[in-house]
Amino acid sequence: MNGANALVKNLSQRGIQHVFGYPGGTIMPVYDAFLDSNVEHLLCRHEQGAAFAAIGYARASGKTGVCIATSGPGATNLITALSDAMLDSIPLVAITGQVPTAMMGTDAFQEIDILGMTLGCTKHSFLVTDPNDICETLNKAFDLARSGRPGPVLVDLPKDIQLAEAHYVPPLSVIKERAADSFDRINAAISLLRKSSKPLAYVGGGAGMADAIDELRTFLTETGLPSVCTLKGIGAIRPDDPGYLGMLGMHGTRAANLAVQECDLLIAIGARFDDRVTGKLESFAPGAKVIHLDIDPAEHGKRRPVDVSLCGCLKKNLSSLTITLDQGDWLQHCKNSRAASQWCYDKPGEDIFAPLLLKQLSEATRENSVISCDVGQHQMWVAQHMSFCHPNNHLSSAGLGTMGFGLPAAIGAAISRPEDDVILVSGDGSFMMNVQELASIKRKQLPVKMVLLDNQRLGMVKQWQELFFDQRYSETDLSDNPDFVTLAKAFGIEGRIITKRHEVIPALEEMLQAPEARILHVCIDERENVWPLVPPGAANHEMMEARA
Amino acid sequence: MSDSKTHYSLTIQCYKKPEVLERLLRVVRHRGFDLESLSMNSSECGKMVSAAINVSSERPIETLTRQIEKLYDVLDVCQPAATEAIPRESII
User: Fold this and answer.
1) Fold exhibited by the domain A354-523
2) Extents of the domains making up chain A
């Protein structure tokens, strides 16, 4: 068999059912091989859309996503999504065509040094120069994408290598089971826990990535620790956990941020002290010792000194740290703080209030629905006002903050979890960034529901211009948006527009009950901002609140 | 500015791949270190490379060594007076 057939057979035998991509000249042998394979290829309408669909597939299912593109522009169009997967630690394998080896380095048609270009946005990248290495390289790529801290891996395949006769090697994984940390380290952490009078769990995306949700929840229940989470950690802690205080950081809850500032021990679980989490680093959790559980040693001490580092298996480490503690007054204090800072939804007037709409959407959806968001104000409102029972149900571009993430990620989720509802919450700015993927919804007749919160502005940028740039609004007016319902209609997707609050619940119900894709175009007030807000350079307790 | 920087020497053992030096130097730059000097030798078997680099930065050297240790083609990073060593198998 030729190299392309060997590659596709290897994909098939490792259980890859779906790949997302776009064909072109140098990847044609692989596309030819797909015709004789049971691997289903979803044609997206842009390589960036394909890669984000693969990310959505991976995030919603916990599997490794696969995307594929041709050389040159096809490959460069993957780069934003590879960067997104890099910053959010998403297991992704990208396969790119390359010009024939004899043409490489000659500035051939559609030649670009994609290996060189992706050094900084992949966990690793391979250039295959021997057809007999194709399968073994693929085996390494899939292992690398999942092992340790997950991430994107690129495999660049020159066209002559795809066409040459190749040895077939079946899928083989050599990922070893990770051990727990030593007794000494675990005991040091337990000692800190026992000595602490105000301990707090700070949970990030690593808990879900490590498949440690059950262990985390048992740990929180047994220790009685109050807890906060990052944007990517949302869903790891049960929303009804008595000590759960919500998201921390720039748009976190007042209760979460104040608890972090007050605690005397911070147990960071699969989190990395991101700048959007910490605010002014020197003032973050100023009186706290730190136990840091994270699989990536490079994260330990990177931004915050650590008292006990635990890099081993998170599931085992959390089980070892599960002891009975009496949180007494501290837990009650946190609960009181949470009760005193409940969200307020009784906004006067008849205009649609986006936070309330999202709360109502959350209440109307089934528990295991997937919500995919884009980036901006609506993304923060989703994080604040919707409830999630598992991190795989909340798809949000956290680290890179990529507008245009939501629609293709929702497509990937709909492919990987056809039994569950998939709902996109987008903004009018983000939606237009990968709007071509409406064609992918049409092509596969995917029942994705789209809630488009339209304030005719680049809302988050406008909010910052209002607050920090003297209300000098530069290029954030989108009042010349297209008619979104008509636009969707062109792709065979029905929808409606709503402008008043009393229309919300009937419109949500109609959308959710529809068996096919729907768009709900929601007109909201452009003056509405995201609160609270920790201004840039401020400490997390210095939150700005909505003006009365 | 350079007065506040600390100078470090590192020796890095890695597989001989065409792009391995690019990977190494990209991490050095991106993580906030200035490259002062570099020397590189291939092993007799032709499969390994030893790179000795001198770098300077205001940042602690562990912020660099731990990122270099994560590179797939890197086998070992040696630095005099290194901080607590983390086993290689716990990184990849």
Assistant:
1) Rossmann fold (3.40.50)
2) 3-163, 183-340, 354-523
The domain locations on chain B are 2-90
CB distance A223 to A324 below 8 Å: yes
Domain A183-340, CATH: 3.40.50.1220
Contact B66 A116 (CB under 8 A): no
Choose among B19, B26, B70: nearest Cβ to A298: B70
> Angle CA(A458)–CA(A380)–CA(A301) in degrees, nearest 5?
115
Interface contact A178-B90, CB threshold 8 A: yes
What single letter denotes the amino acid at residue A125?
S
Residues in chain A within 8 Å Cβ distance of B62: 301
pLDDT single digits (tens) B65-87? 999 999 999 999 998 654 444 44
A120 → closest Cβ in B26, B69, B89 = B26
User: pTM higher than 0.90, yes or no?
Assistant: yes
Nearest chain B Cα distance for residue A296, angstroms: 7
Residue A273 DSSP one-character state: -
Taking CB atoms and an 8 Å limit, are A115 and B19 in contact across chains? yes
CA distance A152 to A141: 9
Quote the tokens at residue A264.
């005397």
Complex prediction ipTM:
0.92
Write out the two tokens for B21.
């030096």
Picking from A314, A322, A451, the residue whose alpha carbon sits closest to that of residue A379 is A451
Q: Which two tokens stand for residue A523?
A: 């007109």
B86 in contact with A at a CB cutoff of 8 Å? yes
Return the closest-CA partner of residue A122 out of A68, A84, A75.
A84
- How much helix, strand and coil, in percent to the nearest 5, is found in chain A? 40, 15, 40
Dump pLDDT digits (tens) for A433-490. 999 999 999 999 999 999 999 999 999 999 999 999 999 999 999 999 999 999 999 9
Catalytically annotated residues of A? 47, 109-110, 159, 460
Half-sphere exposure of B28 (CA within 13 A, CB side): 21
**Rounded-to-integer distance, Cα A52 and Cα A55, Å:** 5
- CATH entry, A3-163, from 3.40.50.620, 3.40.50.970, 1.10.10.10, 1.10.645.10: 3.40.50.970
A3-163 and A183-340 share one fold: yes
C-alpha distances (whole Å) from A381 to each of A275, A279, A355, A387, A495 are 19, 19, 6, 11, 22
> Six-digit token pair at B53?
């680099």
Residue of B19, B23, B72 lying closest to A144 (CB–CB): B72
Give the list of residues 6+ apart from residue B75 with CB closer than 8 angstroms, or none.
Answer: B13, B14, B15, B48, B88
Contact yes or no for A120 and B92 at CB 8 A: no
* CATH number of the B2-90 domain: 3.30.70.260
